[in-house]
Amino acid sequence: MTEDDLNSQPDQTRDTGDELREHEVRTALLDLLAEVGTVTATEAAAELGYSSGLCSFHLRQLARHGHIEEAPHNGGRARPWRLRQHTPTATAPAEDQFGDLARGLEDESWQRWLAQRDQAPAEWRHDEAFSAVAYLTPEEMSRLADTIRRALAPYQDREQRPLARPDGARPVALITRLFPLLPHATDGTDQTDQG
C-alpha cells in the first residue's frame, strides 16, 4: 500500500480505539508543529515514533480540515507542513492559535462521541459531561485549575506507561476550560456585577 493509497481511503466508521488513536496522533502532530514550525511526514515519524505513512495520512487530514497547510519549499518529494497561517488572527500569540486548533479537535472528538456512542461497549455508553458557573476571583480560578491538575496527575503517566493501566482502562478525554464570562456586547449591561 502506497502513501497515496492511505491518503485516498474513504472515511469509514472506526471503532472507538481507532478514533482515540487518530486524536492522539493528530494532537501529537499539532504539538510538534507548534514546537518546531515546519515538519515533513518523515521528520514527524522520527520524532513521534509513528510510521511515516501514518503521519502523512494525518497531516493531510489536518490540512483537509484547515488546521495546517503546506509550507513553502523548493520542490522535491518531501512535503513540509506548518500550522495554518490565519490572516485575521496573525497578531495573536502562537499559543492562542494552537489553543484554537486543539479546541477544534476536542469538539470534533465530542461530536463523534455523541454520534457514535451507541457503538461503544455497554459499560462505556455514558459520559460524565457537566458544566457550571461559579463566581470566582482570579486567584480562586487559578487555585481551582491547580486542584484539577493535581487530581489528574496520578493518571497522566499511563499514556506513556501502558503497563501502569488497570485492566479495562481506556483513553478518556478530559477537557477543562476555566474562563471569565464576558457580558454580551448587545445588551450594554455588565453581567459580572449582577448578583
From TrEMBL:
| Compositional bias ranges of the Basic and acidic residues kind | 12-21
Q: Name one Pfam family in it.
A: HTH_20
Q: From the Swiss-Prot or TrEMBL record, give the protein name.
A: ArsR family transcriptional regulator
Domain of life according to the entry: Bacteria
Region: Disordered, residue numbers: 1-21
UniProt cross-references to SUPFAM superfamilies, sorted A to Z: Winged helix' DNA-binding domain (SSF46785)
Q: Which organism is it from?
A: Streptomyces piniterrae
